[in-house]
Amino acid sequence: MTFAQRRPAALVASALVAFLVLAAQPVAAEPDTPLPAAFDHAATRYDVPRDLLAALAYAETHLDDHGGEPSTMGGYGMMHLVSNPTAHTLEQAAQLTGLPVDKLRTDTGANVLGGAAVLRAHADGLGLDEAARKDIGRWYQAVAKYGNASSPETARLYADAVYELLGTGFTARGVTVTPQVVTADRGPYAEVPDLSAVAAPGAEYPSASWVAARSSNYTVANRPASRKIDRVVIHVTQGSYAGAISWFQNPGAKVSAHYVIKSSNGAITQMVRHKDVAWHAGNRDYNHRSIGIEHEGFVNNASWFTDAMYRASAALTRHLCDEYGIPKDRKHIIAHKEVPGATHTDPGPHWNWTTYMKYVTGGNSTKPWSTTTDNTTADRFTAGADWRVSTYSDQRLGPDYRFAVPASTADPARYKMKVPSTGRYRVEVRYPAHPGYNSSAPYIVVASGGDKTVYVDQRSGGGVWRSLGTFSLKAGTYDVVGVGRQTSGTGYIIADAVRISRP
User: Fold this and answer.
1) What b-and-e string marks burial along 135-165, b requiring 16 or more CB atoms within 10 Å of the CB?
2) Distance in angstroms (rounded) separating the CA atoms of residues 97 and 46
3) CA 489, CA 287: separation in Å to the nearest integer?
4) Closest listed residue to residue 467, CA positions, set 304, 315, 264, 177
5) 491, 459 in Cβ contact below 8 A?
6) Quick one: angle between helices 108-125 and 50-61, nearest 10?
7) H/E/C letters for each residue in 366-432?
8) Which residues pair with 492 in a beta bridge?
9) 35, 57, 181, 254: least CB-packed within 10 angstroms?
């Protein structure tokens, strides 16, 4: 099926009518219902997978309702119900649930119900019957539609972020989603370019992807010949990474930034060329003299500001300063709120300027450390005879990588690493990606509190370092990470490289 194809109108209409009958009676949400119970209730009411609903909310807002204030894109509550000139999921949720718009904006239980109702409506529009709805992987296209993306590429980026959370798991505000095997059925999105791949043609920063902002959201110029670039302005998106990219592609946005950075792993997307003027600062003079960098998250929630984001952003800022002769100081690397006449407060009180500027200037009193083990690292990698050698993909790290088929036993490929001291470490993995590789490859981290398994979709996100999370590791030299074969995911399981680091 291609994006040009559509399901028969009668099927879509009948599905929508059936859903509206189901949802016609208003369901009042208890204002004081604990958050886990709110997700359980909404999932049951609208027959939506509870873990998928929670993962979608976490990807959007980290389960934060922001006191009823809207995001940059006009999204409300932890389910990010949107009301703007091009998207109306808030109003759709009101129609589907019978709840008032004001309640959906400000009441968490109502907002979760509204999100579940909208997601279910998308599933019905796609023709998912009761049996199909029990397979969490079949909801992928409904999730992609929920994100109100401006293009198929950003829709895939959005849905992939939600499904990535199902593989890694998370705990926030009493809501826990355990890591699980999920094969995402991408349907036509499987043929859409994966924006998580780096070094895309067109990017001016070596480790960035390139996704062009809508031409109506920036000014074509000829900097620095026409105007010296002497500032870097730091922003926070007030929304998700995929949402910000999609918004800058939206003709109604009338805003843009040169770069957007992802919270979880520091992935960077460039959207406006350096020579051109992005509309990011709210001040014409500063727009023309600066480069704007947006960071995924919300100013009032510190959980978005990860070390990976700080490091990636600082490296980008250092590169820009070196390229354009911008002094690496707080007079020239500024907050959006420091722009004259600014009405915004980003990056807000949780942004750690001390840490950020140390990374920009190359100083770091906390002595960062990292070590990498590749499948060819001498005496550090072991694997059974069923793990075969391949040089097929140029996304590999080193001369080759290993692959194996799923099995009934773990039979892990193991990465031995030296952990210098007991503490918290970031664990990252790298692998080539291919449609024939595994949809849910199990990575086993030997943590001090017990082994932790994270499931990774190796069909996408290849050729870059992907974070499995931060874990408590004990000191010593031992097999820190294994790649297992015991999974119901489909496709070859890949073992390439592992990196652990301490901020």
Assistant:
1) ebbbbbbbbbbbbbbbbebbbbbbbbbbbbb
2) 10
3) 48
4) 264
5) yes
6) 110
7) CCCEEEEEECCCCCCEECCCCCEEECCCCCCCCCCEEEECCCCCCCCEEEEEEECCCEEEEEEEECC
8) 437
9) 254
pLDDT averaged per 10 residues, the chain (length 503):
34 39 40 80 98 98 93 95 94 98 96 98 97 97 96 95 96 96 97 72 84 96 97 97 95 95 92 97 97 97 94 95 97 97 95 96 69 96 98 96 97 97 94 97 96 96 89 97 97 98 79
Question: If residue 36 lies in a helix (H) or strand (E), which one and from where to where?
Answer: helix 35-46
The helix/strand/coil state of 145 is helix
Q: For residues 345 and 113, what is the distance between their CA atoms, to the nearest angstrom?
A: 31
Degrees to nearest 5, angle at CA 347 with 79 and 198: 75
Cα–Cα distance, 446 to 472 (Å, whole number): 9
Phi, psi of 231 (to 5 degrees): -140, 150
Look at phi and psi of residue 341 and say left if phi exceeds 0, alpha if psi is from -120 to 50, else beta: left
**How far is the C-alpha of 272 from the C-alpha of 270, rounded, in Å?**
6
C-beta separation of 277 from 286 below 8 A: no
- Residues 6 or more apart whose CB falls under 8 angstroms from that of 154 comprise 147, 195, 211, 242, 245, 246, 249
- Which amino acid does the sequence have at 419? V
**Residue 352: other Cβ atoms inside 10 A:** 14
Give residue 470's identity as a one-letter amino acid code: T
Question: Which amino acid is located at 398 in the chain?
Answer: G
- The residues, any chain, with a CB within 8 Å of residue 129's CB and separated by 6 or more, are none
CA dihedral defined by 487, 491, 497, 499, rounded to 10 degrees?
-50
408 close to 434: Cβ distance less than 8 angstroms: no
**Coil, helix or strand at residue 157:** helix
The full length of the chain comes to 503
Contacts of 377 (CB under 8 A, 6+ apart): none
CA of residue 165 relative to chain centroid, distance: 9
Antiparallel, parallel or unpaired: β 333-335 and 231-236 = parallel
Taking each helix axis from N to C end, the angle separating 353-361 and 307-324, rounded to the nearest 10 degrees, works out to 50
Task: Please give the pLDDT value at position 159.
Answer: 97
Q: Let me know: does 39 contact 174? Beta carbons within 8 Å.
A: no
List the structure tokens of 495: 């073992």
Calculate Rg over the CA atoms of the chain.
23
Q: What is the pLDDT of residue 405?
A: 98
pTM: 0.88
How many whole angstroms separate alpha carbon 490 and alpha carbon 495? 15
Among 356, 297, 365, 363, CA closest to 330: 356
| Domains in the chain with CATH codes | 9-189 (1.10.530), 208-361 (3.40.80.10), 369-502 (2.60.120.260)
For the chain, helix, strand, coil in percent to 5 are: 30, 25, 45
48 CB neighbour count, 10 Å cutoff: 24
